[in-house]
């Protein structure tokens, strides 16, 4: 199936595996790429040196195009961009809008720039700055999310920009792909569905927790870091929502200490990051500390398997998923379903 997305990035199928921290590593990304979709490596939880190693590992596993997801606000974003350029990465994906200067640097080096956005005005802004495409995530998506449903946000953005639009939030099968194409999208981006594959390195016990979830077990809470965050309702989430400020601050300090030990980040740097996160937002200091070390809360579940101590970012589609196919089987199934749905609609 050829669309503006497949032509832009050089993949066979208009399907994107999103850059999920601690989940979208070399194994998942390369398996996705070999299946003909666009895999995106999550770099926010990696050092610059580890990012270089991870890129080379993906390249050793596949000759297909893939991307790297970056935090545009990271202090070392420039160093990461230079690693990507040097290693010949095809696509740069961003969780926040990159600066015009960063977009220009990447495009001058031949890298395709695809920011993720959650509002029409953000899509218009990055398109004017030269972004090659955008991933539009509606409120159904996992992780930090907005409150506008994909079915409302997607047509807004498609009508507002002249670059390829990839739809995210609520997609998991071929029916969703056809629906997104009908809205004018050039493809779909999936997070939770790729997390729940046999190629994902997430512990089996954690995958089982996702598979057992219903749509009512997926919630949006501000208790973790003060921002809307869609995730499975776990013991930690419930504890944070019940906690008073003193207890929440104690928990935040304990987890911040763990993050500092693992990452090598100084207390001063964590406070500086926290002050930046707090700017313009009504966050308590416990939320600031949790926001600064949210990667550790994700690692506890996604890497260590401790769902009692961590958070589990999740799209609402977790309540509709009941199997763990390989990436090849998943992408093949999506494309087969899409072909069948289109044939049923057109009668040909």
UniProtKB/TrEMBL annotation:
Claim: Disulfide bond is one of the keywords in the record: no
Signal sequence range: none
Keyword Oxidoreductase: yes
Superkingdom field: Bacteria
Keywords in alphabetical order: Dioxygenase, Flavoprotein, FMN, Oxidoreductase
InterPro entries found in the cross-reference section: Aldolase_TIM, NMO
GO molecular function: dioxygenase activity; nitronate monooxygenase activity
Name under which the protein is recorded: 2-nitropropane dioxygenase
Source organism of this protein record: Streptomyces caeruleatus
